[in-house]
Amino acid sequence: MIESADEDPLAPAAGLWRDAGRRLRGSRAALLALGVIALLVALALLGPRLNPNRSDTIDWSCIAMPPGLRHAHWWGTDRLGRDLFVRTLLGTRISLAVGLIATAVSLVVGIVYGAIAGFVGGRVDHLMMRVLEILSGLPLIFFVILLTVVFGRSVYLLFLSIGAIGWLTMARIVRGQAMVIRGREFIEAATAAGAGPVRIVLRHVVPNVIGPVIVYATLTVPQIILFESFLSFLGLGIQEPQASLGTLIASGAAEMESAPWMLLVPSVILATLLISFNVLGDALRDSLDPGEL
Amino acid sequence: MPMIRYVLVRLCGALPTLLAIVTISFFLIHLAPGGPFDQEQTLPADVVANLNAAYGLDRPIWVQYTRYLGDLARGDFGPSFRYKDFTVTELIRQGLPVSMTLGAIAIAIALLAGVATGVAAALHRGRLLDHASIALAVVGIAIPSFVLLPALGLLFGVWLHWLPVAGWDRGSIKDLVLPVVTLALPPLAFIARLTRGSMLEVLQSHYVRTAFAKGLALRTIVLRHALRPALIPVASYLAPAIAMIMTGSLVVETIAGLPGIGRYLVQGALNRDYTLVLGMVIVYSALLILMGLLVDLLIAALDPRVRLEA
Amino acid sequence: MLAVQDLRVTFRRAGAAIEAVRQVSLDVEAGECVGIVGESGSGKTQLCLAIMGLLPPNAVVGGAVRFAGEDLLSAPPSRLSALRGAKLAMVFQDPQSALTPHLKIGVQMAEVLVRHRGLAWPAARAAALGMLGRVGMVDPARCVQQYPHELSGGMRQRVMIGMSLLCEPDLLIADEPTTALDVTVQAQVLELLGRMRRDLRMGILLVSHDLAVVAGLAERIVVMYAGRVVENARARDLFRSPRHPYTAALMACAPDLAGPVLARLPTLPGQPPGAAQRLDGCAFAPRCEYANEQCARQRPLLSTLDGGRQVACHAPLPP
Fold first, then answer.
1. C179 touches chain B (CB under 8 A)
2. What is d(CA A213, CA A22) in angstroms, rounded to the nearest whole number?
3. How many CB atoms lie within 10 A of CB A134?
């Protein structure tokens, strides 16, 4: 508390970031999670090339082969003799892609919506918040299912509908931050010191908004991956012959009595992915919010 | 009675929301390209026309809409397009008790076990039990139901032979164990984490210090003075928890083959059974709104400072 | 009855040790009222909590606290909870946050008697009702049915005091009991404390940052600065002639106080040192207008002057 007195009052975010960085480095769980995510991303991008098999090649000599290193199907094969190593990693790639793209969509929509509401304020803000309130009161997951019934199942619809859910909370966070910052003294001070609006936004607003946004985005990615695999599991998301982790788990669950690895391989990957993102997001949130221990 | 007034006002307030949900869902479904009979292998045009006429689909859309609303007011959700011998109302009447039972048991377990775990973790802060509860929270929150249920089925059903993997044998308790555990675990983990945090905060409050200064036993302090305020965040979380369990019920009922409304919704969505999906979405929305009201009443009961204001 | 010897309270926080109370000794005899005075942050509250055994787990306590001959610091938790509320009671600064918000006043009071006296709930409730009358609640029967937020600040503090007196304790520790209240209500609460003390013949440890608050009630006054006792004297002697410059400064800051007004020190400039700071000399030296070179180098020990009063100063003011 006392040591902050000698810091530049016009750059309140700098100390926070330094602190956050230190705390994050101190958190072994967060570093481990980050490492696991990096490993999974690398595997999803490069893994399929390391294995001689292709995702849709049927190996008639190896139907429902258990995992092992003696043969080329390291993680086993499914009922159709398709290689699970390649299929799972391609599924991971799709799940990650859906997660990242839909998060990006929800980020953009949420930031624009929230920033407009927060900075404009007044009646516009009131109206926009009412809309947000009504939307977040609706059971959106059921509406997405409704949409899949109406428009059929397509990947684009998936992006659209998932993104439509993700932006609500983001908009609320950004609006809150924008309103707080608008009233802050250091903005007035910077204006008084002759700083132009661009400079103020870049130097003072962005560093202050970006923290919560990053935290929330990190927590949104696993939610969206979860949602996508949920729909795919039910048969309402990604369709054959494409595979996502959800469809792989669904076919694994159907075969679990005779070929349990078909269930376990994609389940372990998905669970690891989700836990890692959640741990990283929680650690980021804790490190940016010194008040909450 | 201010409470009865509050409930009435809130219920009236919920009606427009519900109407909006019904309207949006109805028009979405009916404005969509293609009809419910498109998928079936190219029926002769006159058969399709007959079917459409039989279901009233040849009328102008606003006629269909007002008729649907009128039927809805009498509790009639229309015929199912796929379950040919049933109306949607019959399916709901059949499925709702199953889903409600499942959900009620799950939320009760999540609450009791979650709060107990959270309180125990807070009282043993920094020790093994605390760390175990944190690990449970991380895993329980992150692992989705559709991974958990097959995994539990594999372990307890296929490998250990303790419990049936799936099925519905006239509601035998054994059939319900795994689905209920799967539904309860994510909210349980979340409630444990919430309770731990709020309990730690309440234990540092001045009134708990006063309770200690009065020489009360730790049990009394925790149960009488600390628990109720610590439960307020848990109560606010109940609405999302119920939504979470409803979402989970789609998966759990589908995998375990339980004849609940969740499975009908998924089946309906896969078969493009318009009226069925429409009916289930309305039922789920109404349930969610009703639960939200119950949760608000619960919060007011927990904290005497909260006034019920509509 | 209460004997505190060389009490030290240290908090461990993020590797640093913060000394809140440094070697404090004081006694409270049966039926005596001792006032503790000092600025906020001088360690008064931590001293009270240490006596009660209510410090948070990251506090390290050294020295000795004896209550009726029994060492409280080494007493097991079960013994402490049997004493607290029965023989040893405490009233807190802010009655708003010190009462449990969701329990009715009647329950919060009665449970003390249920716990310590083994009364049944109806009997305990009746006794609580009687106590509320004794502490001057206008409508006790209504009050037991109310929640804390439905009462005014002064009424809440009356409830707190009544609650602490239910078992007729031998010692009441009152930590800033009037700080959160209006001036007129302050006087009523102090009057109530005095009356109950006469009725029950109990000792009181009355803590305040304001000399005027303790002036009317205390026979003996202990002045604390930066976690240490700097002066300890009978109230009459202290007000007649403060020997420590800090005491004199405090008195000058309370102009409505009967006693010599020192026009030289109308306000007290500067701030007390932080609890984490290491001090070689006198902690008050940087703010003391009489400080000499010895004061900055060497810490003055608490020494006994004539008349049984104690002062920790290299150059005490003349009597």
1. no
2. 19
3. 11
Question: Average pLDDT, stretch B134-158?
Answer: 82
Predicted pLDDT of residue C263: 45
The first and second tokens of residue A148, run together, are 């899949």
Classify A101 as helix, strand or coil: helix
The token duo for B1 is 């009675």
Backbone angles phi, psi at C221, to 5 degrees: -130, 135
Asked if the Cβ–Cβ distance from B29 to A150 is below 8 Å, we say yes
In SS3 terms, chain B reads as: CHHHHHHHHHHHHHHHHHHHHHHHHHHHHHHCCCCCCCCCCCCCHHHHHHHHHHCCCCCCHHHHHHHHHHHHHCCCCCECCCCCCCEHHHHHHHHHHHHHHHHHHHHHHHHHHHHHHHHHHHHCCCCHHHHHHHHHHHHHHHCCHHHHHHHHHHHHHHHCCCCCCCCCCCCCHHHHHHHHHHHHHHHHHHHHHHHHHHHHHHHCCHHHHHHHHCCCCHHHHHHHHHHHHHHHHHHHHHHHHHHHHHHHHHHHHHHHCCCCHHHHHHHHHHCCCHHHHHHHHHHHHHHHHHHHHHHHHHHHHHCCCCCCCC
Per-residue pLDDT of C152-189, as tens digits, reads 988 999 999 999 999 999 999 999 888 877 888 888 88
Q: Which pair of tokens denotes residue B306? A: 């909260």
- Distances from the Cα of C95 to the Cα of B206, C83, C151, C265, C302, angstroms: 9, 22, 10, 34, 35
Strand bridging mode C310-311 / C228-234: antiparallel
Cα–Cα distance, A145 to C3 (Å, whole number) = 73
Strand order in the sheet with C203-208: C88-91, C171-175, C203-208, C33-37, C220-225, C228-234, C310-311, C303-304
Q: Are strands C2-13 and C16-28 parallel, antiparallel or unpaired?
A: antiparallel
Which of A226, A229, A257 shows the shortest C-beta gap to B158? A257
Q: Token pair for residue C70? A: 């029994």
Q: Which residue has the tokens 């979470």?
A: B244
Residue recorded with tokens 């892609």: A97
Nearest residue in chain C measured CA to CA from B225 = C100
The answer to whether the CB of C196 falls within 8 A of the CB of C165 is yes
pTM confidence score: 0.80
Residue pair C115/C154 in contact (Cβ under 8 Å)? The answer is no
Query: Which 8-state DSSP code applies to residue A204?
Result: I
**Interface with chain B: mutation pick from A149, A151, A244, A268, highest number of B CBs within 10 Å:** A149
Query: Cα(A258)–Cα(B181) distance, rounded to whole angstroms?
Result: 24
Contacts of residue B251 in chain A, CB cutoff 8 Å?
Answer: 230, 233-234
Whether the predicted pLDDT of A93 surpasses 90: no
Sign of the torsion formed by the C-alpha atoms of C143, C146, C151 and C155: positive
Tell me if C46 sits within 8 A of C10, measured CB to CB.
no
Identify residue C42 by its one-letter amino acid code. S
Closest residue to B229, CB basis, from C102, C149, C160: C102
pLDDT above 90 for B257: no
Q: Counting Cβ atoms within 10 Å, is residue B282 exposed (0-12), middle (13-18) or buried (19+)?
A: buried
How many other C-beta atoms lie within 10 A of the C-beta of residue A25?
11
CB B212 within 8 A of CB C88: no
Interior angle at CA C265, CA C259 and CA C270, nearest 5: 130
- For chain C, which ranges sit under pLDDT 50? 257-265
Collapsing DSSP states into helix, strand and coil, what is residue C229? strand
For residue range A36-87, what is the model confidence (pLDDT) as tens digits? 888 888 888 877 777 666 666 666 666 666 776 666 666 777 776 677 777 8
Neighbours of chain B (3+ CB pairs under 8 A): A, C
Structure tokens that stand for C37 in this block: 């005075």
